């Protein structure tokens, strides 16, 4: 079976999205780290709206002084558009303005930045990004949401710089404005493949913050040797430095998800780690290593490198102990094996 180009190798997938990580399971993962702050919701806005509020495009009404959407407006929008949030599209809408502004702050978005947002949904985070004076390129796969977003933005931030692209984020080949930051509440079911695809294909993205399922985020930021270190950890490290930047309360979403969420901040390397040919070779090794993560590398990499003996020889030339396991190697270690492999052809 051909290993996946992006995301998880078979056997290295996160737990089901219907199950959250327990305290017992999470204990000891980052024992040296200080407890992560939890982004709690601000007091819910009143469901009632002033009678003299001007009507928004397509019937939305918001208080004149508000620049972000509240719980009432988000539910009104969803009802108006006939949107019933689905697990298939990973739709959980942020309904808390305090959380939106915290995400934007962590992402250090500034006036003049061009920000890429994937899965803007009803526009909660989009409005927070535009509030800073940044331009936003929003990629939305749902036609109803893509058509409504510019109308909502024009009502609440007239003249804001928004470009909406109605497309699957995994099929985009070009983006206007060369976005320098990625800030998004990524759909949980495709978060890692989307993140890696964007980093591979759009080098203008230098930094960003994404909100993902907590278990997935911990894997992205995990160091070698960690219990949750896996193929997403290595592939993320190929592009740059990833870190956790705060857990997020389930109560800031509608509908409330069955899993915990976390913010992951990243900064891209100033220069690519290596060529595209070596990236592909390295990622193939990574996938093979974590398909059989309990085995020594001379065994797990034998199918990719020829056989166990050849794998041992190549790894020895690369300065890597053939009895190591994938969870002990850095991205640079896997790259060294890929170099030795290609040099021996």
Here the CATH topology of the largest domain equals Rossmann fold
Number of domains: 2
CATH 2nd-level architecture of the largest domain = 3-Layer(aba) Sandwich
Which strands sit side by side, in order, in the main sheet?
Answer: 1-8-10-7-6-3-4-5
Largest sheet: 8 strands, mixed
What class do helices, strands and sheet pairing give?
alpha/beta
E-strand count:
10
The proportion of residues forming helix, as a percent range, comes to 25-40%
CATH class of the largest domain: Alpha Beta
Number of helices, counting only DSSP H or I runs of 4 residues or more: 13
Taken as a percent bin, the fraction of beta residues is 5-15%
CATH superfamily of the largest domain: Vaccinia Virus protein VP39
Provide the descriptors you would attach to this structure in a database record.
eight-stranded mixed beta sheet; Helicase, Ruva Protein, domain 3; 2 domains; 13 helices; two-stranded antiparallel ribbon; Rossmann fold; alpha/beta; 345 residues; elongated
Topology:
Blueprint: H1 23-26, E1 38-39, H2 71-81, E2 93-94, H3 97-106, E3 114-118, H4 124-130, E4 135-140, H5 143-156, E5 162-166, E6 181-185, H6 191-201, E7 207-213, H7 214-221, H8 231-239, E8 240-248, E9 253-254, E10 261-268, H9 276-291, H10 297-300, H11 302-305, H12 308-317, H13 331-343
Parallel strand pairs: 1-8, 3-4, 3-6, 4-5, 6-7
Antiparallel strand pairs: 2-9, 7-10, 8-10
Helix pairs in contact: 3-4, 6-8, 7-8, 8-9, 9-13
Descriptive account of the structure:
This protein has 345 residues and is of the alpha/beta class. The protein is built from 13 helices and ten strands. The chain folds into two domains: 23-268, 3-Layer(aba) Sandwich (Rossmann fold); 276-343, Orthogonal Bundle (Helicase, Ruva Protein, domain 3), CATH 1.10.8.100. The protein has an eight-stranded mixed sheet with strand order 1-8-10-7-6-3-4-5. The chain has a two-stranded antiparallel ribbon with strand order 2-9. β3 (114-118), α4 (124-130) and β4 (135-140) form a beta-alpha-beta unit. The longest helix has 16 residues, at 276-291. The radius of gyration is 22 Å and the shape is elongated. The model is unreliable at 1-5, 15-37 and 42-58 (pLDDT under 50).
């Amino acid at each position: 079976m051909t290993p996946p180009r992006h995301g998880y190798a078979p056997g290295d997938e996160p737990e089901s999205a219907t199950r959250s990580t327990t305290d017992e399971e999470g204990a000891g993962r980052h024992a040296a780290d200080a407890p992560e702050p939890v982004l709690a919701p601000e007091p819910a806005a009143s469901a009632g709206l002033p009678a003299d509020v001007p009507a928004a495009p397509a019937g939305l009404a918001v208080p004149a002084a508000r620049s972000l959407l509240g719980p009432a407006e988000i539910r009104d929008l969803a009802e108006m558009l006939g949107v019933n949030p689905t697990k298939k599209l990973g739709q959980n809408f942020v309904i808390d303005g305090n959380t939106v502004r915290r995400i934007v702050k962590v992402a250090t978005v500034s006036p003049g930045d061009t920000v890429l947002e994937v899965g803007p949904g009803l526009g909660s985070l989009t409005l927070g990004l535009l509030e800073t004076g940044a331009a936003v390129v929003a990629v939305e796969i749902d036609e109803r949401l893509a058509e409504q977003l510019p109308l909502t933005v024009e009502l609440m931030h007239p003249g804001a710089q928004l470009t909406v692209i109605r497309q699957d984020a995994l099929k985009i080949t070009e983006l206007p404005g060369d976005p320098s930051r990625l800030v998004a509440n990524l759909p949980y079911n495709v978060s890692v493949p989307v993140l890696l695809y964007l980093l591979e294909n759009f080098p203008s993205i230098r930094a960003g913050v994404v909100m993902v399922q907590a278990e997935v985020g911990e894997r992205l930021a995990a160091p070698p040797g960690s219990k949750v270190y896996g193929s997403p950890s290595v592939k993320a490290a190929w592009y740059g430095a990833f870190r956790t930047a705060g857990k997020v309360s389930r109560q800031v979403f509608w509908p409330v998800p069955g899993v915990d969420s976390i913010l992951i901040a990243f900064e891209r390397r100033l220069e690519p780690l290596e060529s595209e040919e070596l990236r592909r070779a390295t990622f193939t090794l990574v996938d093979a290593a974590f398909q059989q993560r309990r085995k020594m590398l001379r065994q797990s990499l034998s199918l990719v490198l020829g056989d166990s003996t050849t794998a041992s020889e190549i790894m020895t030339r690369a300065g890597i102990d053939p009895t190591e396991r994938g969870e002990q190697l850095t991205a640079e270690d896997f790259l060294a094996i890929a170099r030795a492999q290609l040099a021996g052809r």
